[in-house]
Write a sequence for this structure.
């Protein structure tokens, strides 16, 4: 059952003006070691969440606005905003936000009359509506967004035709270009560039952000990198290891400061959240240090859209089931500009790293299966095949060791349209980043509420290589990432973490069974046997043998045997 909206009735929740305040008992554990003895102690931390419910007018600036992702997300928002429909060979199509966690998924809030009750994810807390976003951004190509959309070959022609009037006057700002950090094959697109030294480029980006905010009338701006994958930058002491050294290196025009890091520095200095949607190490230690000093949200790295998302589910399932993955081989080919850029070895290496590290925490969670230092063989291959364009192919083979030395092999083939998967993730990242900046929390004993750590770990569900604060474990398992995000939002409105224990529903009512026994003859025997559920019934059937009367009965017809609230799912 889906309900569109709801109110929380709790003495732990109140509202003061625009601020929703929730008093929350955070139950966790403390672990201590004394010699060979380990002690796990339950603890409860009292936390007050304060959420500003006033939704701002949001501006989103995309680095790489004229690329496949930028033109697709722009077209998607405009199609939804204007209710554009279009015909295909499969019939009439209407716009939607399928693939978006915030716009197209639900959360369970409880049960009602034996049925689970769900609400839209976006109804948990007030969020920006995607149709209200004001878009802008940069690109090293001066092509307008309508022509960029045509070049990308992602959207159906009939949809493109109707979007052209809305997109032909949208032109990216000049962008930062450094041919040393991306493939040489991108040079012919680079005709819209910010000139000058790195310091001058940072100042230009800062000015462009201010001018966009003023001209668009937005309350808040978020910047997201969806441009080409860069090679990894070298991390060196004195170059980019601290905020001071990074800023000094920018002033000295050091060659090893990448364009994505320059955008990041400009955003942090302007107090604007910055998200990296590509796999390179944009967030060198100095940029993270700068963001922490300034208290500005940063998040990344690399959109988690297809193959890696499946991997973070499947490996978590296998290891959690006590099955030992021993080899994972992942092959991809694609034909869009991302694939062309990744055909260069130095940029491919960035993608290889972000794709390969996704199983690390799941392997580390089970030392019964893996000895110290042991890890599955993990190979990632990406090839550029122009003919397939944006329709990416991914093939994976998972080899595992099972009971008594046996072997299991799972082979998976995934064909997906790359930018149509990435675009909803871009929306989720900016919407959740914006929401995160409106939430504060105050622990017991603290005088004032504080914002979340500037490194936005809550965005982990959407990224291949989650950026986390120093000292925090990296979690890649998809179910854990989603649970973290959902449960934090539930805490903000005074709801307990989601769980599937169903303790009240599954409790056996011995008193009713005793009454049933006493009402039968001594010679009568009651036996229970499950039988296959009929497709048209909600509850499982129980075959009853009771004296001479026997036959299938439904749970809700047997209140004397079990409590009337009990039910069994098929």
């Amino acid at each position: 059952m889906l309900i569109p909206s709801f109110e929380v009735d709790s003495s732990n929740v109140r509202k003061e003006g625009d601020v929703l305040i929730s008093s929350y008992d955070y139950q966790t554990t403390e672990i201590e070691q004394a010699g060979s003895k380990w002690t796990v102690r339950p603890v409860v931390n009292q936390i007050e969440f304060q959420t500003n419910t006033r939704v701002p007018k949001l501006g989103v600036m995309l680095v790489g606005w004229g690329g496949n992702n930028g033109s697709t997300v722009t077209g998607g928002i405009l199609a939804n905003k204007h209710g554009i429909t279009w015909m295909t060979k499969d019939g009439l199509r209407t716009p939607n936000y399928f693939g978006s966690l915030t716009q197209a998924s639900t959360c369970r809030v409880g049960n009602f009359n034996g049925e689970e009750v769900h609400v839209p994810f976006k109804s948990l807390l007030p969020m920006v509506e995607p149709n209200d976003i004001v878009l802008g951004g940069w690109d090293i190509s001066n092509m307008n967004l309508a022509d960029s959309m045509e070049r990308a070959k992602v959207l159906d022609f009939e949809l493109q035709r109707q979007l052209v009037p809305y997109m032909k006057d949208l032109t990216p700002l000049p962008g930062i270009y450094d041919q040393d950090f991306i493939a040489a094959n991108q040079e012919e697109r680079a005709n819209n560039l910010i000139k000058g030294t790195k310091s001058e480029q940072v100042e230009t980006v800062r000015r462009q952000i201010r001018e966009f905010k003023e001209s668009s009338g937005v309350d808040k701006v978020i910047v997201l990198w969806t441009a080409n994958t860069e090679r990894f930058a070298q991390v060196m002491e004195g170059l980019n290891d601290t905020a001071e050294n990074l800023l000094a290196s920018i002033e000295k025009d050091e060659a090893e400061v990448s364009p994505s890091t320059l955008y990041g520095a400009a955003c942090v200095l302007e107090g604007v959240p910055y998200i990296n949607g590509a796999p390179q190490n944009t967030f060198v230690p100095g940029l993270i240090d700068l963001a922490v000093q300034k208290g500005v949200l940063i998040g990344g790295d690399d959109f988690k859209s297809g193959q890696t998302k499946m991997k973070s589910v499947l490996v978590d399932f296998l290891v959690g089931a006590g099955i030992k993955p021993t080899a994972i081989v992942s092959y991809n080919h694609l034909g869009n500009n991302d694939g062309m850029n990744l055909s260069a070895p130095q940029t491919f290496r960035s993608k290889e790293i972000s794709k390969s590290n996704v199983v690390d925490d799941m392997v580390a969670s089970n030392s019964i299966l893996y000895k110290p230092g042991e890890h599955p063989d993990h190979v990632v291959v990406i090839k550029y095949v122009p003919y397939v364009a944006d329709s990416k192919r991914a093939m994976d083979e998972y080899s595992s060791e099972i009971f008594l030395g046996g072997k299991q092999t799972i082979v998976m083939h995934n064909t997906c349209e790359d930018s149509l998967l990435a675009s909803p993730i871009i929306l989720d990242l900016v919407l959740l980043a914006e929401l995160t900046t409106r939430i504060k929390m105050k622990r017991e004993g603290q005088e004032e509420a504080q914002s979340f750590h500037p490194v936005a770990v809550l965005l982990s569900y959407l990224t291949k290589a989650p950026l986390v604060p120093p000292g925090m474990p990296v979690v890649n398992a998809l179910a854990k990432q989603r649970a973290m995000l959902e449960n934090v939002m539930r805490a903000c409105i005074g709801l307990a973490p989601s769980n599937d224990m169903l303790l009240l529903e599954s409790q056996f009512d011995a008193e009713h069974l005793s009454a049933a026994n006493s009402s039968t003859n001594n010679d009568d025997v009651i036996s229970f046997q499950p039988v296959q559920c009929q497709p048209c019934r909600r509850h499982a059937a129980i075959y009853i043998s009771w004296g001479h009367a026997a036959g299938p009965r439904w749970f809700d017809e047997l209140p004397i045997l079990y409590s009337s609230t009990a039910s069994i799912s098929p």
Observations:
- Residues 83 and 263 are 34 Å apart (CA to CA).
- Residues 198-216 form the longest helix (19 residues).
